[in-house]
Specification:
Blueprint (H helix, E strand, L loop, with lengths): L1 H20 L13 H26 L7 H15 L4 H11 L8 H11 L7 H11 L3 H14 L2 H6 L3 H16 L5 E5 L9 E6 L5 E6 L16 E8 L2 E2 L3 E2 L10 E6 L5 E8 L2 E10 L2 E2 L3 E2 L10 E6 L5 E10 L2 E11 L12 E2 L10 E6 L5 E6 L9 E8 L2 E2 L3 E2 L10 E6 L5 E6 L9 E7 L6 E7 L9 E6 L10 E10 L9 E6 L4 E7 L6 E7 L2 E8 L6 E7 L5 E10 L7 E4 L16 H13 L4 E7 L6 H21 L7 E5 L12 H7 L1 E8 L1
Parallel strand pairs: 26-32, 34-35
Antiparallel strand pairs: 1-23, 2-3, 3-4, 4-5, 4-6, 7-8, 8-9, 9-10, 9-11, 12-13, 13-14, 14-15, 16-17, 17-18, 18-19, 18-20, 21-22, 22-23, 24-25, 26-29, 27-28, 27-30, 30-31, 33-36, 34-36
Helix pairs in contact: 2-3, 2-4, 3-4, 4-5, 5-6, 6-7, 7-9
């Protein structure tokens, strides 16, 4: 009996020895058969530790770790190919992955490290707690954090600064916040994303244009860890989906690293930041027609010796909010949100930057900032407050002259991963964020947030026997009237300025006046390439709009912006009448049968617009000219073009335009605007034009 018991104990001892022996340390004695390969692998292993140590020190100091964790993993991967059974190597790789945009890979290596050697490192419980937290196992994560705290030496806990306490708080917040998910859908916008980092969504107020920053391959030289620099891409929302992002190219995208920070609400200005030497500075670019200007470094009061990165205008552009380093003794101590006010009418000089206050800023990093089009809400991401892990997105409301206590936007907008860069449409129905949560295309991805809106209460009333058996009737569910919610009334006024005859875009100056006070509240120029404009207006007022463009009739009107319960959209096409002497405009929608001069009915809409112009400007005198291609004889073409011009004049006279204000002339093929050697060219040459002779 004793012999049997001794055998069992010996067997258990043998099994334990085998399990412990699975941890193959990086020692020469373990690799006598392949010393050369071991030497190379050991060099990678030790080099990786140097990068890892530098990265961890930066994290503990609440500053950016740069590429240290990526560099560490590149070295560790090479060592891992040689010896995947090192508990220490697996632990180091798990540690490194937790601070990358592939955090979800960490758990595999940490689990393996613990399996190989449960006592591999004093920080194993802390990092395994982080891995469990990512999986939203908040209870288990909290136990591991507290176990680490109980078993660690004071210096180890001290090295983490406030991080350990914050991690435990995050688990407490995680349990509460995830138990009551927000009424939203979160969708990966696959068409905008790539296997690399895609981030910083910048969107126009109407939600039709988005600019993102991406580190996808761009033909530039990658950095020391194989990452490409950030370039800026643009996409348009068409037919219910986002178009494939197109690199905007120079001058916004360059071989340097630049990031789009905020697209102004009307889409005509872009805030970016880029490195200048060792510092990040904020720049501004303006859209003129279809081209962006070379980004200009903003005022010196905004760009200081510290790093300035993400920035956001207030709706009236009188203030700008930025993320900047907070420094002590010349050393960065993380990042905070600051604000600056404009000091001059030229919109170039800002006052001193001041912190938005401890209500918003924490002892941890604040990562990005976005001001809602109403100006009343600040969205920002932070590692502090009641985050449930990594960066979470918060909102603070501006009341009584100060920013209020931030509110966590909740799960599933926020996760234990990093969730950044909130940008919302004016309607408040959609928002865009970036997140490195598991399940994306890779790294940071762009996600669309769709808000369901407030729930409606249900009440039970009559039993509906038509939908169920008498034995098991179901109750008719009646939807109660919507509960009124106090929302900020915001109206987006958008539109285009176009030529009344051709429909082509016209660059115009627009003044918006508050008719109750007579004050001009906004002056802007529409886009020269598209004629588009967009701005937000306070509801419940009567506004005057005055539109001016060289060579066009002055246009003015007034309109009421009704007081809605929430969001309202006004979309207006402003047609401008061309009155400049010498202006010659092709009437492309005038149609005749081949070889004939009888006007087809499809021409009426175009001709009626010309009639209206003549009535609006009684002093106009115009010439109607007919033109053909070179097919046929000159005599025939000249006569045909004259007959067609006469037909147009006859139509205008029939609509009440005096004959002495109208002239007609047939030029045949004498004035081509394109080559007659192609079908396309001949089609362009077959046209009817009008020219303003007097005004």
């Amino acid at each position: 009996m004793k012999r049997v018991r001794l055998t069992i104990i010996s067997g258990l001892f043998f099994i334990g020895s085998v399990a412990f022996a699975q941890d193959v340390e990086f020692k020469a004695a373990n690799f006598k058969e392949n010393k050369d390969e071991f030497k190379v692998a050991l060099e990678h292993f030790e080099k990786g530790q140097e990068f890892l140590s530098a990265g961890n020190e930066a994290i503990y100091a609440v500053v950016s770790p740069g590429n240290n964790f990526h560099a560490a993993l590149l070295e560790f991967e090479k060592a891992y190919q040689f010896n995947p059974k090192s508990a220490q190597l697996n632990f180091f790789m798990g540690n490194a992955y937790l601070y990358t945009n592939e955090k979800y890979k960490a758990k595999k290596y940490l689990d393996e490290a613990k399996k190989l050697n449960p006592e591999v490192d004093d920080f194993l419980d802390f990092y395994m707690g982080m891995a469990e937290q990512l999986d939203m196992n908040f209870g288990e994560a909290s136990k591991l954090y507290k176990k680490f705290e109980a078993n660690s030496k004071s210096k180890q806990i001290e090295s983490l600064g406030r991080m350990l306490t914050q991690r435990i708080k995050e688990c407490e917040s995680g349990i509460k916040i995830t138990s009551k998910p927000e009424r939203v859908w979160i969708d990966n916008v696959a068409n905008l994303n790539s296997p690399e980092d895609d981030y910083s969504p910048c969107i126009t107020t109407d939600g039709t244009t988005i600019m993102i920053t991406s580190k996808r391959p761009n033909g530039h030289q990658p950095d020391e860890v194989g990452n490409y620099d950030g370039d800026i891409y643009v996409s348009e929302f068409k037919n219910g989906k986002w178009t494939s992002p197109a690199n905007v190219g120079a001058p916004l995208s360059t071989p340097n690293d630049e990031t789009a920070s905020m697209l102004s609400y009307d889409g005509t200005k872009l805030l970016t930041f880029a490195t200048e030497g060792e510092d990040y500075n904020v720049y501004q670019s303006k859209l003129s027609g279809a081209k962006w200007s070379t980004p200009e470094k903003m005022h010196r009061s905004l760009n200081t010796v510290a790093n300035q990165t993400y920035a956001s205008f207030s709706p009236n552009r009188r203030r700008i909010y930025i993320i900047t380093d907070k420094t002590t003794g010349g050393q960065s101590k993380g990042t905070d949100v600051y604000e600056l006010s404009l000091m001059n009418s030229s919109n170039t000089e800002y006052g001193a930057a001041t912190s938005v206050g401890v209500t918003v800023n924490t002892k941890f990093n604040e990562g990005s900032v976005y001001i809602h089009p109403s100006g009343d809400y600040m969205y920002f991401c932070s590692e502090g407050h009641n985050s449930i892990g990594g960066y979470d997105i918060f909102v603070s409301e501006f009341k009584q002259g100060q920013w209020q206590e931030p509110k966590n936007l909740g799960y599933p907008i926020n996760t234990p991963y990093d969730d950044y860069f909130f940008a919302v449409t004016a309607s408040g129905k959609y928002a865009y964020i970036a997140s490195n949560r598991e399940g994306g295309k890779g790294g940071l991805d762009i996600y669309k947030v769709t808000f369901w809106g407030d729930p409606k209460e249900q009440s039970s009333a009559t039993e509906d026997y038509l939908l169920a058996s008498i034995a098991n009737p179901i109750q008719d569910v009646q939807i109660e009237r919507e509960v009124k919610v106090d929302k900020k009334a915001l109206t987006v006024f958008k539109g285009t300025t176009v030529d009344a005859i051709t429909g082509e875009a016209v660059e115009a100056t627009i003044e918006i006046t508050d008719n109750s006070t007579g004050s001009v509240i906004e002056t802007f120029t529409t886009n020269s390439a598209t004629g588009k404009f967009l701005l937000s207006l306070t509801a419940g007022k009567n506004y005057g709009i005055a539109v001016k463009a060289p060579g066009y009739l002055f246009h003015s009107e007034n309109f009421d912006v009704v007081q809605p319960t929430g969001f309202n959209m006004i979309n207006k096409v402003i047609e401008l009448k061309n009155i400049k002497k010498g202006s010659k405009i092709a009437l492309r929608n005038i149609f005749f049968d081949s070889g004939k001069s009888d006007l087809k009915s499809e021409s009426n809409s175009e001709l009626d617009r010309l009639v209206q112009l003549m009535k609006d400007v009684p002093s106009l005198v115009i010439e109607i000219s007919g033109h053909t291609d070179n097919v046929g004889s000159d005599k025939m073409n000249t006569q045909l073009s004259q007959d067609r011009a006469d037909a147009v004049v006859a139509y205008l006279v029939s609509k009440g335009i005096k004959k002495d204000r109208l002239k007609s002339k047939g030029y045949g093929a004498a004035q081509p605007v394109a080559s007659n050697s192609t079908a396309e060219g001949r089609q362009l040459n077959r046209r009817t034009e009008f020219e303003i002779l007097a005004n």
